Amino acid sequence: MTKKTKGKEGQLSRREFLRDAGLVVGGATAVAMPLLAACDSPTTATTTATATTTVTVTTAPITTVTTIPTTTVTVTAPPTVDPPATASAISTIELTVNGLKRLVQIEPHQTLADMLRDTLGLTGTKVGCDRGACGACTVLVNGKPVLACMMLAIEAGETSVTTIEGLAVKGELSPLQQAVYDHTGYQCGFCTPGLIMEATALLAEKPQPTMEEMKAAFGGHICRCGAYYSFMESVTLAGGK
Ligand code: FES
Ligand code: FES
């Protein structure tokens, strides 16, 4: 650019401005011309696309060989199921119940407790747990306390069984029954027949048992009401009578 001559300090004259502008435009045009010429020139685009796809198909030879192994199948017959109890499975036993000779038809699975309650109607014998854990079903077999839910009825053949119904004589409660009644040695009473049968056997052996002997004897009886002490006091009252 030419050196600027300023009419006034720091100012361009109109003529100087136009002259400088012409130089700038002329220079720019000189640079742009080759570019414009290039733009006007026909453009030849050569595109060569060669796509080559190679697909290799391998076909395996089909060989079908079927070998069927020989299998030995053993068919096991299902286990035989015992036929349900029929009339022919019913047995007849003879025993003494509360002093009376009885002929009783029983099924093989029946317990002594079931036979007393369901067949003979002696429902004073209670069934609490039905598995030998509570003592409610205690009866006397040949004078000894037995859990009737744990004894099969067929095992009671030729024995003498005493239940709570057999303790009263001619309508009179036994001394122990009377003492339990008088001293309120029970609450709900569900365990009481079993406890009375146990205590009857104990008193027959020890007319005046100690507290420790009673605790040992009644240990297998569960009283849900917790009437143990009033019951043992009743047994003490009945002792010796
Ligand atoms: S019912 Fe027999 S022991 Fe409980
Ligand atoms: S008095 Fe109720 S369970 Fe013994």
Query: Helical amount among residues, as a percent range?
Result: 25-40%
Low-confidence stretches: 1-9, 21-52
Q: What is the radius of gyration computed over CA atoms, rounded to a whole number of angstroms?
A: 58 Å
Order of strands across the main sheet:
2-1-5-3-4
Assign an overall shape.
elongated
Query: Quick check: average pLDDT?
Result: 80
Describe this structure in words.
With 241 residues, the chain is of the alpha+beta class. Helix content is 32%, strand content 10%. The protein is built from six helices and five strands; from the N terminus they run αββαβββαααα. The chain has a five-stranded mixed β-sheet, sandwiched between helices. Helix 3 packs across helix 6. The model is unreliable at 1-9 and 21-52 (pLDDT under 50). The structure holds FE2/S2 (inorganic) cluster (2 copies). One FE2/S2 (inorganic) cluster is lined by residues 127-130, 132-137, 147, 149. One FE2/S2 (inorganic) cluster (FES) binds next to loops.
List the helices and strands and how they pair.
Blueprint: H1 14-40, E1 91-97, E2 100-106, H2 112-119, E3 138-141, E4 144-147, E5 160-162, H3 175-182, H4 192-205, H5 211-218, H6 228-238
Helix pairs in contact: 3-6
Bound molecules: FE2/S2 (inorganic) cluster (FES) (2 copies).
